[in-house]
Design a protein that fits this description.
Elements (H helix, E strand, L loop, with lengths): L1 H14 L47 H12 L22 H5 L3 H9 L5 H19 L2 E4 L1 H16 L11 E5 L26 H8 L3 E6 L9 E2 L2 E2 L1 E2 L2 E5 L5 H8 L5 E6 L5 H7 L2 E4 L19 E6 L2 H11 L27 E3 L5 H9 L5 E2 L10 H9 L1 H4 L14 H7 L10 H22 L4 E4 L4 H7 L3 E11 L7 E11 L4 H12 L13
Parallel strand pairs: 2-3, 2-8, 11-12, 11-13
Antiparallel strand pairs: 1-3, 4-5, 6-7, 8-10, 9-10, 9-14, 13-15, 14-15
Helix pairs in contact: 5-6, 8-9, 10-17
Length: 532
């Protein structure tokens, strides 16, 4: 009888719109005990770096299908890491600081391996240039003089003992100041974090250290990885001091172009390797999403952030990428796929396209090398809200550490309001809308796969960074000419002109091989700015 009364009460409450705990009052005395409500445990506090459970996969069919496809296509182990040979040094050794500083990595490596120069001597050249040119360029956050000298001495001892680790051994480089380095400031370009120290190293630092590279400086990034302005000012382009170096890998672009480091590591979410490399006339690789670990780097977007080399030649990019790519258990978005750079590719066997704004002279140069470039079909282009939502989540700890963010004061100017509001917009996007946007993003990825099915790569004048950062495709920036940029400005300057090779997914090796084939017969990539 009492059981029937309980069930009737529950049914009535359900019919009225839901079970109300007060509708069951008195049932405990009838033998139906009540469980007192329990408070939910407090949420685990989150900082900037903790990844979500859902991970972006650049291959539309998923990583498992990609691995199976590559296993059959390669006819062997897709995880094998191939060595890239460098030509031995011959001839006279450069005698001036500038001639040494602007040598590409593969020539510096040949000098060091032949013991024509020591890492300590080379590091001293770059440290001197950093200290002399940074006050003009504002390209460095921290010059790591003591650390660099110690790492260079260690490299010299190892090489003298016959333990040459490879082409990066003893080569000084710079790191975008989004990456943690134990005991060193990592400022993210923001005054609020100008005294942020960590006790651990980013994975990119670990892998370059294992390759024997010498970390000479933490290089500037625009505030929170936007633009080329940070808390010390604006990082400048060494080709034209009247303009910034573009962003947000502003310091890596400026320092490498000015010969302050042999190469640099940048990051891109939506143009931050491609843009400063084009502005500063560098050769660079924005890898396929997931190919280089981002562990220890500041997060803007777990589904779009990428790490890549900014160098003086395509061969240099291949050497650096070969040392750092591959899966890392600390970055669940990372994976390992083959990288087989070919220094002598058969361009006739490459399926190369070009879009409507591709530079004609570059396309014709590829034809002269044996390629048969074909016009691309219509390329899709739509946007998702991934960056706004993910960056708001990544910086929630900073914007709203105690819950809801404080209101932005009304009396601030437009630029300051925009800066303070940057990581707030994503908070207003409904979860359903975000998920639907990502579903449409996957449709876009499949549309892009259809466009690329007959091409290994295509030449793009614009670079299409908005599209290709959503789909995860790789891109190589290649200098191809010089010309007057901004002829109507107050100070028109002859500047390097660059184009972009956009590859099919995981064809990073092919786009660098084609760029290298072009650079073997040209010297645009080896020109120097006049800053000294």
């Amino acid at each position: 009888m009492e059981r029937r009364r309980f069930l009737a009460t529950a049914a009535a409450a359900a019919a009225a719109g839901g079970l109300d705990p007060t509708a069951l009052a008195g049932t405990e005395a009838a033998g139906v005990p009540q469980t007192p409500p329990q408070e939910a445990p407090p949420p685990i506090p989150l900082g900037n770096g903790e990844p979500p459970a859902l991970q972006f996969q650049a291959y539309p069919g998923g990583t498992g299908a990609l691995m199976e496809k590559m296993w059959y296509e390669t006819g062997g182990n897709p995880f094998e890491r191939a060595e890239i040979a460098i030509e031995r040094w011959s001839g006279p050794v450069p005698t001036t600081e500038e001639d040494l500083a602007f040598l590409p990595v593969h020539r510096l490596a040949a000098l060091i391996r032949a013991r024509e120069i020591t890492s300590s001597e080379l590091t001293a050249v770059y440290l001197d240039r950093l200290k002399r040119l940074d006050p003009v360029l504002l390209c460095a956050v921290t010059i790591l003089e003591g650390r660099a000298q110690e790492e260079a001495r260690q490299a010299d001892l190892e090489i003298a003992a016959g333990d040459w680790r490879g082409p990066l051994h003893g080569i000084p480089y710079g790191l975008k100041d989004l990456f943690a380095v134990a005991g060193t400031r990592t400022t993210w370009g923001a005054a609020d974090f100008s005294h942020q120290f960590t006790r651990y190293d980013s994975e990119i630092v670990v892998r370059l250290r294992e390759a024997g590279a010498v970390l000479a400086a933490k290089l500037a990034t625009g505030e929170f990885a936007r633009g080329d302005r940070w808390y010390r000012g604006r990082t400048l382009n060494p080709w034209n001091l009247d303009e910034g170096s573009s962003g947000s890998s502003a310091g890596p672009g400026s320092a490498t172009a000015a010969g302050c480091v042999a190469f640099a590591i940048g990051t891109e979410t939506q143009g931050s390797i491609v843009s400063p490399s084009r502005r500063c006339g560098l050769t660079a690789l924005r890898p396929t999403f997931g190919r280089v670990s981002r562990y220890g780097g500041m997060v803007l977007s777990w589904s779009m952030d990428k790490t890549g080399p900014m160098c003086r030649s395509a061969l240099d990019c291949a050497l650096v990428f070969n040392a750092v790519h591959g899966a890392d258990g600390k970055d669940p978005g990372s994976l390992t796929t083959p990288f087989r750079f070919d220094p002598d590719p058969d361009l006739g066997a490459m399926r190369i396209g070009f879009d409507e704004d591709a530079p004609e002279s570059f396309v014709e140069a590829l034809r002269a090398l044996g390629a048969d470039p074909q016009p691309m079909p219509e390329i899709p282009d739509r946007r998702s809200n991934a960056l706004g939502v993910e960056s708001s989540a990544a910086f929630d700890f900073h914007v709203a550490p105690d819950g809801e963010p404080e209101a932005i004061p009304e009396d601030l100017d437009q630029d300051e309001r925009r800066r303070r509001g940057r990581f707030r917009g994503g908070r207003d996007v409904p979860a359903l809308e975000f998920v639907q946007s990502q579903r449409r993003r996957h449709i876009l990825m499949k549309e892009m796969a259809e466009v690329m099915k007959d091409f290994d790569m295509f030449v793009s004048g614009s670079g299409l960074v908005g599209l290709t950062n959503q789909t995860g495709h790789p891109a190589a920036v290649v200098p191809y000419d010089f010309g007057v940029r901004n002829p109507d400005s107050e100070s028109p300057t002859e500047m390097p002109l660059t184009t972009t090779l956009i590859g099919d997914l995981f064809t990073d090796d092919k786009i660098l091989s084609v760029a290298h084939a072009f650079q073997k017969g040209t010297d645009w990539h080896s020109r120097r700015p006049g800053i000294e």
